[in-house]
Amino acid sequence: MAFLAVIPNYERIDRLLVSAELRRNAALRDIQFYRESLAHLLRDASDKIIDAEYEETPAAAEQFDLKLAD
After folding, report:
1. What are the angstrom distances between the C-alpha of 2 and each of 12, 14, 15?
2. Are 58 and 68 contacting, i.e. CB atoms less than 8 angstroms apart?
3. In the prediction, which pLDDT does 51 show?
4. Residues in contact with 56: Cβ distance below 8 Å, sequence separation at least 6, in sequence order
5. Contacts of 9-15 spanning 24+ positions with Cβ under 8 A
6. Phi-psi group of 16: left, alpha or beta (phi > 0 → left; psi -120 to 50 → alpha; rest → beta)
7. What is the rounded CA–CA span in Å between residue 61 and residue 68?
8. Rounded to an integer, what distance in angstroms lies between the CA atom of residue 16 and that of residue 12?
9. Is residue 44's pLDDT more than 60?
10. What rounded mean pLDDT belongs to the chain?
């Protein structure tokens, strides 16, 4: 009889655990998506930097106290 009295408590705890697990899984999925998206953005940005063309100008060289190649 005592066990029957506490069954609703166990069921409530079980529902809370299921809810917490679902929220945890959703958070982990969001983190994975964010990391993959961020990695893609960083890869694209670094590719643009590597592939970029540049030009040395006298003003920039003076600003950083650099000597232009002759």
Report:
1. 17, 19, 21
2. yes
3. 83
4. 66, 68, 69
5. none
6. alpha
7. 7
8. 6
9. yes
10. 84
Instruction: At 18, list the tokens.
Output: 């299921």
Residue type, 43: R
Q: Which amino acid is at 42?
A: L
Written as one letter, the residue type at 61 is: A
pLDDT surpassing 80 at residue 23: yes
What would the two tokens of residue 20 be?
């917490």
Residues of the chain above pLDDT 90, percent: 43
SS3 state of residue 1 = coil
DSSP 5-62: HHHHHHHHHHHHHHHHHHHHHHHHHHHHHHHHHHHHHHHHHHHHHHH------HHHHH
* Global pTM exceeds 0.70: no
